[in-house]
Amino acid sequence: MHLPRVVAAAATAVLATGVGLVAANEASAAAGCRVVYTVNQWSTGFTGSVALTNLGDPITNGWRLEWNFAGNQRITQGWSGTFAQSGQHVTVTNPSWGASLPTNGSVNLGFNADYSGTNATPASFTLNGTVCTGSAGPTDPGPSPSDPGPSPSDPGPPPTGNKVDNPYSGVQGYRNPEWQAKANAEPGGSRVSNNPTAVWLDRIAAIEGTDGSSSNGSMGVRDHLDQALAQGAGYIQFVIYNLPGRDCSALASNGELGVNDLPRYKAEYIDPIAAIQADSKYASLRIINIIEIDSLPNLTTNTNVATCATMKANGGYVQGVGYALNKLGALGNTYNYVDAAHHGWIGWDSNFNPTAQVMLEAARASGSVNNVHGFITNTANYSALTEPYFTISSSVNGTSVRQSKWVDWNQYVDEQSFAQAFRTHLVSIGFNSGIGMLIDTSRNGWGGSARPTGPSTATTVDAFVNGSRIDRRIHPGNWCNQSGAGLGERPRSAPASGIDAYVWVKPPGESDGSSTLIPNDEGKGFDRMCDPTYTGNERNGNNLTGALSGAPISGAWFSAQFRELMANAYPPLS
Ligand code: BGC
User: Fold this and answer.
1) What is the 522 CA–ligand 1 centroid distance (Å)?
2) Could you identify the atom of ligand 1 that is nearest to the CA of residue 206?
3) What pLDDT shows up at residue 3?
4) Are 102 and 210 in the same domain?
5) Ligand 1 site, CB within 6 A
6) Which of 510, 521, 565 most suits a substitution to test ligand 1, by most atoms within 8 Å of the C-beta?
7) Any catalytic annotation for residue 512?
8) What percentage of the chain reaches a pLDDT higher than 90?
């Protein structure tokens, strides 16, 4: 377990505040920088994270970060910058698209490396030749004797300061044996069944386990935690998904609790889960709680739907999420990640900041923004991780791709660029600067024969975007059992700047909703977005749904979908 450390080259101007170190305020000057260097290591290798902040004047024409390793560390792969190593000397230069670094702007670099012996933190870092002291100014006088230290409004370390920065790093994730068994029963399923997937606690009964339910397993929370210990897993992922008036803008995953059932949510759902997670027997596990899919974004964009309007008016979502964050965030080994929808939902300016503000409201309702360790995007969705053949800045004959029907003035064309930007924005409005993002890559691979192999040569913007995009959906608002989708990136930690992990939260092969009405006693409705014959509503531009036919109720095993996801996996399965 390694906590962020602020590295100050010349031992000046640094005050300890518990988990981190805070640079003293000095008069601003031309150059200055701060580096937070974090590692997650095992016996022969490590993943390094370098958070670089420019404390000096804006840099506009390129930056260069350098350090010397003390031992035999050798970088094998780096990201978010161009890495070069000569002996012990490392030079990282800006990526071509990121030559600027404004005052107080940060970049988060990462790398994988080999080493043996000890893995000491480099003694100093330089930015464009200036040593990073943690404060601005070439003639830094150091702290004055009367330095008052952190101001009274300094939030200080999070209340749960012994948490690791990235709970996914350096450890193996829990493999849910109930999902594994279903995957293994499919031809070729053993190629993917070793991946960690999340355990959905989608009703009160799931806490103890639900024998006989088609959309939930018979293992309860304790069973999964015990099994995680038995596997020697380092982390386990639960989805907290049972708000009053759940899934207010859709019908496929309507839950068991009515719109006024906040007291039951607290007492019968969150409290018992928190009590089990608090058992000291599980203290060695990093317990990751993914909090309430789709709920807060629905309060921003879908209050024209009656149940969403009710949940906004009665505070059930904000107070429920706040309560969950408080109770589940209180332990030293639990990590809350709040659901933040996806770029095809809140990537427009009109939705971006308002959604972030609702997140802040819920976090404050929990008592502290530090109860939020991060956010997750694309849960159970299909948005491409990155569009390799065009970006938001691309244009065709002078027409921006933002004007295409597909992009429709969104500010993002893919999930990772959105997640990184949303993270930056969340920090700017008051979330902890250490928050990290997760991206659900369970079903956003978009491989197979329909995947474009390069940018389109079409000369109109719609034809260019439609011919170039790997996301083959009919419309980005389509969300149910999408035809043509494939498994995405396999779960792994620290894959990109600001991203704690790619995760498989929606277990591949579990339905998003039934394609026809199927009576059931699990509270699952029929949403026509899961019906391939439905011609849509305003949330998918009145398009066909692109859903597969023959789907069972949400959460139930959908063999045909699982097989298609494997066939269209990207990266492909070997
Ligand atoms: C369903 C849950 C299920 C989850 C994971 C949701 O859409 O409502 O019952 O556990 O998906 O498959």
Assistant:
1) 11
2) 10
3) 30
4) no
5) 200, 202, 215-216, 253, 506-507, 510, 512, 554-555
6) 510
7) yes
8) 71
Our count of domains for the chain comes to 2
**Is 519 among the domain residues?**
no
CATH assignment of the domain containing 295: 3.20.20.40
pTM above 0.90, yes or no: no
Task: Decide if 402 is inside a domain.
Answer: no
Residue 415 lies in a domain: no
- Domain residue limits at 239: 177-392+422-453+485-509
- 3-class secondary structure, 356: helix
Whether 128 and 259 share a structural domain: no
Ligand 1 atom 11: residue of nearest CA: 555
For the CA of 512, the nearest atom of ligand 1? 7
Nearest-CA residue for atom 4 of ligand 1: 555
Question: Based on the domain organization, do 203 and 336 belong to the same domain?
Answer: yes
Q: How far apart are CA 360 and CA 26, in angstroms?
A: 30
Q: How far is the CA of 202 from the centre of ligand 1 (A)?
A: 7
pLDDT of residue 496 exceeding 50:
yes
* Ligand 1 atom with minimal separation from the 215 CA: 9
Tell which atom from ligand 1 comes closest to the C-alpha of 203: 9
CA 24–ligand 1 middle distance (angstroms): 49
CATH of the domain at 87: 2.60.40.290
Active-site residue, selected from the candidate residues 247, 512, 527, 531: 512
What is the pLDDT averaged over residues 409-415? 98
User: How many residues can be counted in the chain?
Assistant: 574
Q: Is the pLDDT of residue 127 over 50?
A: yes
Say if residue 571's pLDDT is above 90. yes
Q: Do residues 273 and 182 share a domain?
A: yes
Q: Beta strands 89-93 and 130-131: pairing type?
A: unpaired
Q: Which residue has the least CA distance to atom 5 on ligand 1?
A: 555
Give 40's pLDDT tier (boundaries 50, 70, 90): low
Q: pLDDT tens-digit profile of 69-88? A: 988 998 887 767 888 888 88
Q: Measured in angstroms, how far is the CA atom of residue 200 from the centroid of ligand 1?
A: 7
Q: Say which residues have a Cβ less than 8 Å from residue 244's Cβ, sequence separation at least 6.
A: 255, 257, 258, 259, 260, 261, 262, 264, 265, 311, 316, 320
Name the residue type at position 183. A
Sheet containing strand 492-496, strands side by side: 199-201, 235-240, 286-291, 334-339, 374-377, 436-440, 499-503, 492-496
Query: Ligand 1 center to residue 203 CA distance, Å?
Result: 10
Biggest distance spanned by C-alpha atoms of the chain: 74
Same domain, 194 and 135: no
**Which residue in the list 202, 261, 294, 414 is annotated as catalytic?**
294
Query: Residue 260: how many CB atoms within 10 A of its CB?
Result: 12
**242 and 96 assigned to the same domain:** no
Instruction: Dig out the tokens for 36 from the structure.
Output: 């937070």
Residues of the chain with pLDDT > 70, as a percent, come to 89
**Span from the CA of 526 to the centroid of ligand 1 (angstroms):** 14
Do 83 and 186 reside in the same domain of the chain? no
Residue 117 in any domain: the answer is yes
